[in-house]
Amino acid sequence: MHVQGNTIDFDTARLKLDQSAKNAGARRKVAKRGSQFEAVQQQLLHSLQTTLEVDQVLNLFHKGLQELLQVDALEYRHNAEPAVVQVGQPAVHRCSYRISHAGNYLGELQFSRQQRFAENELLAIETLLGTLLFPLRNALMYREALRNALNDSLTGTSNRLALNQNLERDIRQSHRSQQPLSLLVLDIDHFKQVNDRFGHAYGDAALKAVVNCVTESLRSVDGLYRLGGEEFVVLLNSTTLDAARMVAERIRKSVENMQFELDGQPIPLTVSIGLSTLHAEDDANSLINRGDQLMYDAKRQGRNRVRVES
Ligand SMILES: Nc1nc2c(ncn2[C@@H]2O[C@H](COP(=O)(O)OP(=O)(O)OP(=O)(O)O)[C@@H](O)[C@H]2O)c(=O)[nH]1
Prior knowledge:
Elements: E1 2-9, H1 10-19, H2 24-32, H3 34-47, H4 54-66, E2 73-77, E3 85-88, E4 93-101, E5 104-113, H5 119-150, H6 160-177, E6 181-188, H7 191-198, H8 200-216, E7 223-228, E8 231-237, H9 241-256, E9 261-262, E10 265-266, E11 271-277, H10 284-300, E12 306-308
Helix pairs in contact: 1-5, 2-5, 3-4, 3-5, 4-5, 7-8
The site of guanosine-5'-triphosphate has 16 residues, from strand 6, helix 7 and helix 8.
Protein name: diguanylate cyclase
Catalytic activity: 2 GTP = 3',3'-c-di-GMP + 2 diphosphate
InterPro entries: Diguanylate_Cyclase (IPR050469), GGDEF_dom (IPR000160), Nucleotide_cyclase (IPR029787), Rev_trsase/Diguanyl_cyclase (IPR043128)
């Protein structure tokens, strides 16, 4: 395996092109194919403006690069993101670049193929990377803005806006595929007392502890959304009423058994849960409203319980 490493910064890349005597021969080779290179560069400058999706930006870049040289695969990773974007099938010869712009880390890119990269080819890649920097930076900023718009900043769960988007989509999908869908409305009991006794900051800590506890009781495909205050929705796709009842009961018990302490003092926390399941005539509002009513029934009946639609 051969890895050719590099750290590239837009400004220093330019400098490298202008000043590197070592690369003079390689530069001449690139220059010979100058008009083709410039055409691809122009085309990329244009096409990369057309999307704000990171995956699409990288796909377009790979496509443009392939018009100049054979590159089997491109792999992109970012240390703040768990997912790796991969275009094509990785091969043994690789060159990698840490991408940054004006000191801002934009991720790492690795190109690979069956043959070793020649000096002039590396120079072409490095020069073309200049066209990628702004579109990639914009796409990352867009992704971050979307994430902030759809997440609750205190607990890290998805928020009401995300629920509206996902629930509409999942209900359409369930109606089409005739798959079950169930929903839990969950509210922390007597939460005002936690705030009143220990202060808002401790209330925030209690909210986060409940969220962690609920998250641990769920599958990764289930969605947890904060509706506001101490009220949450759990969206259970492909889940029947009976299966959802077990999930709800598991959540209820694990919150009840959670050892939450403030300054060494144990704070008992419990939740009341309403469970509704999708019917043919349901839309997002009717499904949530039923879950909400059932949650209030659970409160009226003494709290720390699950109420299921009959
Ligand atoms: N710390 C903290 N408190 C919050 C937040 N959002 C809402 N609250 C508080 O949550 C409490 C909700 O109180 P209530 O609606 O009376 O409900 P409750 O005390 O939980 O009583 P029941 O729901 O009837 O069991 C209020 O004191 C709100 O101020 C938050 O982000 N952080």
